[in-house]
Amino acid sequence: MGPVLILYYSRHGATAQLARAISMGVESTGHSALLRTVPPISSDPSAEVPDDPETGPPYVTLEDLRNCSALALGSPTRFGNMAAPMKHFIDTTSSLWLDGALINKPACVFTSTSSLHGGQETTLLSMLLPLLHHGMVIAGLPYSEPELHTTTSGGTPYGVTHVAHSNASALSADEKSLCLAQGKRLAQLAKALYSQQKQGGAI
């Protein structure tokens, strides 16, 4: 059984904070988490993909996606949509779609914005669309998580979020709790679906 892949793009570190907190939730179940990022893109079409970053996780490969048991996909918002580097990478996954490599794997999404009403929910929905096309099983956050009722910062039933303001501020207590819950739920669903498929049962 493969790791839970936590794939994100983060320019100023806010989305990376969410990714690390989700990974803690995954690992709290005993499941392994694999952090990966995507390279920036250039306006120069002939520009080469840069080497892996000197710090932080390496760039994702298609094999990371193929071999994962679940996926958490994260991006900051760009005018209510995912950032271009993430969209650019997703557009390279056609071979996985043709193989059905991601069908029935659970997935969730997460985002950060500089303001409370900065397009969090539309960004999450934009990231869900390609995952649905890949046949993934979407794992949101149920309202049984008490922080969804009390948060005055980030947090939605569509996925975890962070209000970073202008300085990539630290996660609030509610945001961190929801990240942990999201990671835990994703890992538990991955284990349950893997066990069901291994026994030859229908999903």
- What value does the average pLDDT take? 92
Cα-atom Rg, whole angstroms?
16 Å
**Reported CATH architecture:** 3-Layer(aba) Sandwich
Low-confidence runs (pLDDT<50, min 5 residues)?
none
Helix and strand content put the structural class at: alpha/beta
CATH superfamily: Flavodoxin domain
Per CATH, the class reads: Alpha Beta
N to C succession of SSEs: EHEHEEHHEHEHEH
**Shape designation:** globular
- What percent strand? 15-25%
Number of strand segments:
7
User: What kind of sheet is the major sheet?
Assistant: 7 strands, mixed
User: In which range does the helix fraction lie?
Assistant: 25-40%
Q: How many alpha or pi helices? A: 7
The structural domain count equals 1
At CATH level 3, the topology is Rossmann fold
Task: Give an overview in words.
- There is one protein chain.
- This protein has 203 residues and is of the alpha/beta class.
- The protein has one domain: Rossmann fold, CATH 3.40.50.
- It is 38% helix and 17% strand.
- It is built from seven helices and seven strands; from the N terminus they run E-H-E-H-E-E-H-H-E-H-E-H-E-H.
- The chain has helices at residues 14-27, 62-67, 84-90, 94-99, 120-133, 147-150, 173-198, and strands spanning 4-8, 33-37, 70-78, 81-82, 106-113, 137-138, 160-163.
- Strands 1, 2, 3, 4, 5, 6 and 7 form a seven-stranded mixed beta sheet that branches.
- Strand 1, helix 1 (14-27) and strand 2 (33-37) form a beta-alpha-beta unit.
- Helix 1 (14-27) packs across helix 7.
- The longest helix is centred in the C-terminal third of the chain and has 26 residues, at 173-198.
- The radius of gyration is 16 Å and the shape is globular.
- The two termini are 17 Å apart.
- The mean pLDDT is 92.
